[in-house]
């Protein structure tokens, strides 16, 4: 199965807590089309209490079997990259996955331990995804399966229509 691996960098923002009892919130804010030389888990900027962090690099893998999903993403009008993060502390946060498959991103969103964000897809990544789709997409026609008609005389593994005497309520001494 053909695949393409792109190495991307992940940016996140950490907002200060709303109350003094709350914790800060870490959310993915973007992806870089190439992994920079910056060390992972590095604070890049602070403005009005909002911190911008570089969390590290991650492989974005495109599989030829998912080109229909990638095509749906590009045709959506807002192509996105889904970033799944674990942890609220940016110095120790983990990048669980980066994907352009919207259905895989939706699957990660069901995990309560992860924070999943759909961030805008940079143009170089969009071009690479479009090129991969053009090279490897195979249209699969939808075929509705037809059920075979059931032959009631051929079915031998079904329960009897009439209960045996030992199974009836009246003749069972244990149930009286």
Account of the protein in words:
The protein is of the alpha+beta class. The chain has one domain (3-136). Helix content is 17%, strand content 34%. The chain contains 3 helices and 7 strands. It has helices at 67-74, 102-109, 123-136; strands at 3-15, 25-32, 42-47, 50-63, 80-86, 94-99, 115-120. A 4-stranded antiparallel beta sheet has the order 2-1-4-3, covered by helices on one side. Strands 6-5-7 form a 3-stranded antiparallel beta sheet, covered by helices on one side. Helix 1 (67-74) crosses helix 3. The radius of gyration is 27 Å and the shape is flat. The protein starts with a strand and ends in a 40-residue tail after the last helix.
Provide a concise account of the structure shown.
The chain has one domain. Helix content is 17%, strand content 34%. It has 3 helices and 7 strands.
The beta-strand count equals: 7
Average pLDDT figure: 89
- Number of DSSP helical runs: 3
Oligomer: single chain
Give the spatial strand order of the biggest sheet: 2-1-4-3
List the helices and strands and how they pair.
Layout: E1 3-15, E2 25-32, E3 42-47, E4 50-63, H1 67-74, E5 80-86, E6 94-99, H2 102-109, E7 115-120, H3 123-136
Antiparallel strand pairs: 1-2, 1-4, 3-4, 5-6, 5-7
Helix pairs in contact: 1-3
Index terms:
single chain, 176 residues, 3 helices, 7 strands, 34% strand
């Amino acid at each position: 199965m053909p695949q393409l691996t792109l190495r991307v960098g992940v940016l996140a923002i950490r907002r200060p807590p709303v109350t003094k009892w709350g914790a800060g919130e870490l959310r993915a804010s973007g992806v870089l089309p190439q992994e920079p030389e910056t060390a992972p888990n590095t604070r890049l900027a602070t403005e009005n209490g909002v911190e911008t962090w570089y969390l590290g690099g991650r492989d974005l893998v495109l599989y030829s079997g998912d080109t229909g999903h990638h095509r749906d993403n590009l045709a959506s009008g807002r192509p996105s990259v889904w970033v799944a993060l674990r942890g609220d502390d940016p110095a120790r946060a983990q990048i669980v996955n980066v994907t352009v498959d919207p259905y895989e991103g939706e699957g990660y969103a069901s995990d309560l331990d992860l924070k999943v964000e759909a961030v805008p897809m940079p143009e170089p990544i969009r071009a690479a995804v479009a090129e991969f789709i053009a090279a490897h997409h195979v249209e699969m026609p939808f075929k509705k399966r037809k059920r075979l008609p059931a032959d009631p005389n051929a079915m031998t593994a079904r329960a009897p229509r009439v209960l045996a005497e030992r199974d009836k309520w009246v003749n069972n001494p244990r149930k009286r």
